[in-house]
């Protein structure tokens, strides 16, 4: 079932207001790309005979960055609180499921390695996770990485910096808190890992091309810095 147009319009308005406070790597246009990508994946999964709730996928994709930990400030309502308030206003029966998906979408949560039967089986969660990962890699992923590094005033490339390969959740949290790490290290620490973290067959097929583009881009950066062209 598709999303009610009234709920869609009001959700879009709320999300646009929330995203206006974020940098271009996490703006409304990012959310809209993830929403469109999630629906594309969902329809392909349906063609492959998987049961998917399109309404749930669209709502969760629209709200997936609400209350993002990277931008959340003490005293502000959490993503769950914003989602549940919105859903209560519209009498939406699947509010709890939308909130659970929003809480579990991020790479940070996956890195934490918290396992539960629901997260391992919810196809709508997997679709939104994959759509969000796909927007983090490839051409848009490259631009978003640079935009976020600029927002955080981090170097684009530091040849003296050694990337932390196979970064743990604790290392990722510590790096975020310390606001360190150049943009190119981020490719090695996170972005190159995303291809192998896709959960739907549709996203697996889409990810390789975007991954290859990033590998070529990073190689070109290192080549240009070396002056060996």
Automatic annotation (TrEMBL):
Q: What is this protein called?
A: HD/PDEase domain-containing protein
Q: Which PANTHER family match?
A: HD_PDEASE DOMAIN-CONTAINING PROTEIN, SUPERFAMILY HYDROLASE, PUTATIVE (AFU_ORTHOLOGUE AFUA_1G03035)-RELATED
Q: HD/PDEase domain location, by residue?
A: 23-146
Which Pfam families does the protein's record reference? HD
Q: Which InterPro entries match?
A: HD/PDEase_dom (IPR003607), HD_domain (IPR006674)
């Amino acid at each position: 079932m598709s999303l009610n147009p009234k709920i869609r319009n009001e959700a879009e308005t709320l999300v646009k207001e929330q995203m206006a406070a974020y940098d271009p790597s996490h703006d409304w246009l990012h959310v809209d790309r993830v929403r469109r990508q999630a629906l594309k994946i969902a329809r392909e999964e349906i063609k492959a005979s998987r049961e998917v709730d399109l309404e749930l996928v669209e709502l969760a994709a629209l709200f997936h960055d609400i209350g993002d930990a990277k931008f959340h400030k003490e005293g502000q309502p959490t993503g769950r609180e914003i989602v549940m308030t919105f859903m209560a206003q519209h009498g939406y029966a699947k509010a709890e499921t939308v909130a659970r998906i929003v809480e579990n979408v991020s790479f940070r949560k996956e890195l934490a390695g918290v396992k539960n039967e629901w997260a391992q089986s919810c196809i709508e969660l997997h679709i939104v996770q994959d759509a969000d990962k796909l927007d983090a890699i490839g051409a848009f992923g490259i631009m978003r990485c640079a935009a976020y590094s600029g927002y955080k005033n981090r170097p684009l490339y530091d040849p003296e910096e050694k990337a932390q390969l196979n970064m743990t959740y604790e290392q990722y949290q510590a790096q975020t808190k310390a606001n360190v790490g150049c943009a190119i290290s981020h490719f090695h620490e996170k972005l190159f890992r995303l291809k192998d973290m896709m959960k739907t067959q549709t996203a697996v097929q889409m990810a390789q091309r975007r991954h290859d583009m990033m590998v070529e881009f990073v190689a070109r950066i290192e080549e240009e810095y070396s002056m060996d062209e």
